[in-house]
Fold these 2 entries.
Entry 1:
Amino acid sequence: MSILLIAEHDNASLNAATLKTLAAAQQIGGDIHVLVAGAGCQAVAEQAAQAAGVSKVLLADNAAYGHFLAENLGDLVADLGKNYSHILAAATTTGKNFMPRVAALLDVAQVSDIISVESADTFKRPIYAGNAIATVQATDAIKVITVRGTAFDAVAAEGGSASVEAIDAVFNSDKAEFVGEELAQSERPELTAASVVISGGRGMQNGENFQLLEKVADKLGAAVGASRAAVDAGFVPNDMQVGQTGKIVAPDLYIAVGISGAIQHLAGMKDSKVIVAINKDEEAPIFQVADYGLVADLFDVLPQLEQAL
Amino acid sequence: MKVLVAVKRVIDYNVKVRVKADQSDVDLANVKMALNPFCEIAVEEAVRLKEQGHATEVVVVSIGPKAVQEQLRTALALGADRAIQVETDELPDSLAVAKLLQAVVAKEEPQLVILGKQAIDSDNNQTGQMLGALTGMPQGTFASKVNVAEGSVQVTREIDGGLQTVKLQLPAIVTTDLRLNEPRYASLPNIMKAKKKPLDVMSAADLGVNVARTVNLLKVEAPAERSAGIKVADVAELVEKLKNEAKVI
Ligand SMILES: Cc1cc2nc3c(=O)[nH]c(=O)nc-3n(C[C@H](O)[C@H](O)[C@H](O)COP(=O)(O)OP(=O)(O)OC[C@H]3O[C@@H](n4cnc5c(N)ncnc54)[C@H](O)[C@@H]3O)c2cc1C
């Protein structure tokens, strides 16, 4: 068996999601090659070469891959991937964007968002917003898989010494073009990597009130998340949405503030170790999954919490 | 320009699904079914493109047994012009769906194909991208804004780090995210009108596509349940518990 794993990065550093995907690859077993495709991403290849369990790094360094467009990455990975038994990527918005193209080009199925490796061809994955867990067996010769980061513990970032091989193939579609991006700037930890997350919902009432959450977050070194309702209402940007169709988080501590606990929200956070709910409605479904519930007005609680920490 | 919208019949999003006692699958008997919410957003976007004069015709297609006609009628009531059902006994895998849609695309030659980014039952998030690869079309997935221009479309995408905008040559694929629009409700007169709109039925065999599955469903289990914990009286007790009992701060 041989596995091609596509690294997630920003051309400067390797994303932690890659180390978690590597853990899934190690459970499948076999030789693991990591593809670093990007522009000016030599440093990322060097980091990938040090990650535990990697036997070779393939470096495709070309402007065509700089913005990770699915058309170009899909063609490249399908071309390289035909010689492997498994192709893996993190189930991030980048992985979700190009991996199904790879599967279709290779005429195989994709197994999305796996949460466990049962054997080299059998995996578990959540369906119906995590209200059921399916065990599926992929029978295609090449298994194309995306991996849910919260379900795997990252492998060591250092200690390995893989060789780096340059890939010259350039796939550059003239049908898709990068125009621009607006990336969120934050000093706080990244939502999916933070050990503490505090999220606000519709109960926050507006975007300014999120400062109350941020002050608590700063005391805890926490990331700040939100429910769909808070994002839809324009309180905060889309990259903060936790849930079935947003980001999946599983921190040591998740604090839900003014969030009712719809199944779509629970799907994104119910694997957190400890859940705290702050809600003025004692009937709110969020209390059914909370280890510690506080029935109170969030506008009273948040300043007190900031003080107490 | 013609717009093709692919839609899926799924469990209503308010319903919490249950697993069958024999763990063979989830139990959908007597469960309320609906148009997948992301597909509803896709239909709405296509109808708006028509209202704005960008689209000339909106065609909706769904794959599955006869029951999917109900969701096609819903899409027609929301403003689509005509519908196609590709009849299959069961719901095929995403790749087979993408191949069936590829065959429909070859017949209909749309300039834009809009799909939901994911169906809330299988949560796969793959069909649109697969269709893109099979047809050689570029894709704008997880769209929160779509701007059609002459020969191209500009799509703003919701990505993990924020927003990304891409420009795609037509014909192209768009998959919808939650912020793209807020779908309208179908009015009673439109629901009545939808009953008379054309709905063609074709079979997977007519389209020459093999829909055999390559992923076997071995088992479906209920997830580990979390039980409710305790209620604390105030912030002081909460902080004390988090420090000394849960030891997470
Ligand atoms: C296709 C689809 C996908 C979806 N994906 C997601 C997703 O990924 N993530 C997600 O979160 N949702 C998602 N949803 C939406 C989900 O169904 C809920 O609508 C949403 O999670 C509700 O957000 P909320 O809890 O903030 O708002 P509400 O349900 O309105 O709850 C607000 C809560 O705040 C409390 N509150 C109000 N004021 C105060 C106060 N002063 N002090 C204390 N408490 C207060 C109220 O008691 C209430 O419980 C999705 C829905 C669909 C249809």
Entry 2:
Amino acid sequence: MADTVQTRPLAAPTEVGLGREELLGMYRTMLLARALGQRMWLLARTGKTHFAVSGDGHEAVQVAAAQALDRTQDWCIPFYRDLAMMLHLGITARDVMLDDMARAEAPFGRGRQLPAHWSARRLRIVSGSSPVTTQLLHAAGVALASKLRGETAVTLTTCGDGATSEGDFHEALNFASVHRLPVVFVVENNGWAISVPRHKQMAVASIAERAAGYAMPGVTVDGTDLLESYKVIKEAVDRARAGEGPTLIDAQVVRLVPHSTNDDERRYRPAEELADAKARDPLPRYRAHLVAQRLLTEADDTELKQEVAQVVDDATDFAERSSYPDPSEIATHLYAGR
Amino acid sequence: MNMTYREAISQALRQAITRDERIFLMGEDIGRYGGSYAVTKGLLADFGEERIMDTPISEAGVVGVAIGAAMGGLRPVVELMTINFALLAMDQIVNHAAKLLCMSGGQITIPLVVRTVGGAGRQLAATHSQSFEGWFAHVPGIKVATPASPYDAKGLLRAALDDPNPVIFIEHSLLYGLAGDVPEEEYSVPLGKADVKRTGTDVTIVAYSRMVQVALEAAALLEKEGVNAEVMDLRSLRPWDKETVLASVKKTTRAVIAEEGWRTGGFGAEVASTIASEGFDYLDAPVQRVAGVEAPMPYNKALEQAAIPKASDIIAAVRAVL
Ligand SMILES: Cc1ncc(C[n+]2csc(CCOP(=O)(O)OP(=O)(O)O)c2C)c(N)n1
């Protein structure tokens, strides 16, 4: 069962050093991720696409992570729930939809890759693979390359709480710590791994406790609190860039929907736990904060939502109009040329 | 009784757990969720958490622990969600489960069953759609079952559970809904015995797992053209039944081998080389192989379908040997 997290008042914007434009930009990305994700969910549930996996409930920490990175040099190796992080790093809604519909122009795999496995070389985003947790090792390796090449880039990578049970989690953290690599490990801890609750994955109360075993800092944060998450991740990114090594962040988030469109969570998820999760939805929480801080009016909010809805419609139409790959392309990109 | 492949496996597990208190199941989401392909549905409620154990996401760990539990006197049955994730447990399976008996001078047996699911066709893309039966069949010390029908699934699972050796039991994700006659009581189908699914005189089509269905479909179409194909289901790949295959080729003088996975190094190559070296004199044409396109399996549906062998591919291969 998901642990209960105390809801604290959100950090004041001045505390985190972000201006109005950035604060509202993060809100817009959360709205866009939610709307785009829900559209893809609907397409899958109505049989127009085959499959969808959602980040609903994870958006705050994802946007915070993207905001904390230096988009001119840092690397990101996400996992399948990180839509909001991707959008905030610069992946477009159209690209996401092309990929979702397995079209020829889909930039992340030309119709070969599953949805939610984003890659963008220009943004230094590398797809996590479907077998969980492998991306943490890749992130350590990218960070090793940055270090050996004398670059100042930081690599941020994510996984779910269940994924921390794999050996790769241990191996990545150990390697990164031994070599003091510039990497930040963010666990988006929603308390579930498909049907398996966290207490069956691990005996520790907090994933952050594990950091002690690798002699790196471990921080627990309410991952539904955007600004707290930003503060914690920014600090970890700054540490990494300063050559002080990796950090493990346990971001406690909520899963607002079933594991994927293939899942029926009523089989295993208690109604009360789902209700508690919904009460921690990061979106209304951040919106209320912006309104309270007089950064957002009801009219602004309505306008933003309309604009975002248009972006989603445009992306859907654009992808629907584009063509499928040709079967003759099955084996392209199997080997690199010289 | 008429039941599906899924129900047959589920019934075999239920009967085994009921009969033998050493048998227990371990796997990801096998408890309340009932398994990714719903094979263990209902078992947790009836047998409890010690017999139906949800594990952390930790394939190498779970197979390693199961090897230990087998040494310790239990009979673990591990469910690996898909064969693609079996790769994470490869060291435990290949370096340990397969070798401990031999490398302990025959002292330590590992009565372990690893159930897993292979195959493509469900639009799950490259890392969820692979066919690694041949990889496991390559390894001395383990046995490999690849059931293609509800009857064989139940009987081969009983044989695997009775076997004192590690058995990799590879189900196919597109066969779970296939229905057929299955006796209610327990029975065993021996590992290493092929099954002639359809007798014929003109050509032998050797297949296993889902390709048996595709071969039968091809044979039905060929019959309309006046070609009488014999279809053989290997049922297990280690041991595999070369005698039955050779006897069939002796009769038909022509052979086509169909497998779903990649051609290079596929199990079909083993069958073809055996026919070439031990049945050369029977042959009236070179052996033909049908296999999947050599590329990571695409997500896009049309591309995926184009990458998987179809009845028309088998028919083309048959035409080539006639
Ligand atoms: C190696 C491997 N084993 C099993 C799976 C199947 N699987 C996909 S997602 C998942 C649950 C992951 O849970 P968690 O890491 O907590 O992330 P969440 O999906 O809850 O965000 C599992 C078991 C997989 N993809 N890879």
